[in-house]
Design brief:
mainly alpha, globular
Length: about 90
């Protein structure tokens, strides 16, 4: 399960780098670093873009009114765990 999550984290980080044209390698995104603000430096528009590409790629719904969004998008590890638990593709 941990190996699958690591592969999924890399897939998601690659999606994020492509979608946002980040100047960082997907492999350099720390799994536990904050995505929003101080960590990776994403803003709310970036997070919306990430939600869109992740939703499309994995066939799941990431809604803006989900009360768990702060937790889901707090780190790459948490986002990958959410995707692993809810993906349909």
């Amino acid at each position: 399960m941990i190996e699958n999550n690591t592969a999924l984290q890399l897939e998601i980080s690659e999606l994020m780098v492509q979608a946002l044209n980040l100047d960082v390698a997907a492999t350099d995104i720390e799994p536990d670093a904050q995505l929003y603000g101080d960590g990776l430096g994403l803003d709310s528009i970036d997070i919306l873009e990430v939600a869109l590409v992740v939703s499309k790629q994995y066939g799941l719904q990431l809604k803006s009114d989900n009360e768990n969004n702060h937790q889901i998008f707090s780190s790459l590890r948490n986002l990958a765990a959410y995707v692993a638990a809810h993906k349909t593709k």
